[in-house]
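Protocol step 4 of 5: obtain the predicted structure for the target chain.
Materials: sequence only (see below). No template structures provided, no constraints applied. The aim of this step is simply to have a reference model before the mutagenesis design in step 5. Sequence pasted as it appears in the construct record:
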Amino acid sequence: MKYRSLVVGGGINGLCTAWQLCRGGFGPVGLVEQFAPGHNRGSSHGTTRITRSTYADVTYVRLMQEAHGRAWPSLEAEVGQQLIHPGDGIFWGPPDGPIATYKAAVEQVGAAVDLLSPSQARRKFPAFRFPDAKEVLWDRSGGVVAAAQTMSGLWALMQRWGVGLHLGQKIQEIQHDPLSVRTESEVIEAEGIVVCAGPWAPKLFPGLGMSLSPALQTVGYWQPTGIRLEHPHFPVWVHLGREHVHYGLPAFPGQPGIKAAFHGTAEHPDDPDQPTTPQALRLELAQNFLEQQLSVSPGARISEENCWYTNTPTEDFILSPHPADPRIVIGAGFSGHGFKLGPLTGRILAELLWRGESSVAAFTQDRDRFRIR
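Step 4 output (structure tokens):
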């Protein structure tokens, strides 16, 4: 079997890349995924994700403007359903934390973000106390990504576009001569390969030195009483602490209660091939945070689930050709904030594979940030 374009990995970025390769006329396209569609072993499962414009760096603010303005509407039109559900986003934290950097970036770009005093924020968002905030960023471009619907819609597009699906196939090796991937049962050749392997990327490129750290994450769900929990009445939110970040989302169809988690990376990489259990300490941190910040008791946790982060030291993405073989393009390090940019990063990766450059101005103006180091 030989394809013009082959994608390794069926998470949000792999599927969006395959979709963009099909749209760009770079077929036939194949996709290799080691698990079944809808699995919960990676970084793309779950009902919802946050979308927002608020970032600490102008490059990501600009990328989000492109994603909201063009990339997501294009995907929604092709899938035939709404995937981005607009709502309020709020960002806050102690004044000696990173909040000032986020404020400066959105002000420089002119994003749809307003500044509220804590008293103004409490009136508008009565579910929160904002006890450590001097000011609150109200992101009017925030909202909820219907993540499960996005993934199912993308898998349907794979069928519609005639993508060759190689499911349940774990990659053993990427070979350069001829260019191919070897799985447990077959060798698949291609003229070009995009690898979006999530926490397995370091295993596929052990000598490349990409400084990727897979980290197991645990998120929890709560149902506090006395406040409206559902979207759009409850905002998406990020608390920017001096050393730690917490985040959360409203209740949403298919999602029980509000979602909240401690945003953590790993000093020592975790192994995605090892069995996992929910991390009690991470859940305790999220519970304590909600008790401090909500205006009502969060109550008892009702459920939890695991997912994976795969981060670079700076938490920047890798969107880069292989330094020794430009026929291979690598997309990695997306975790923690990559889902909301999937349709756009998929376009960037597809263009890098066949054009060597991207038409996305915010990427090209700061391309060195996304190179392999």
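Step 4 remarks: Residues 2-370 form a domain with the FAD/NAD(P)-binding domain fold (CATH 3.50.50.60). The mean pLDDT is 96.
Proceed to step 5.
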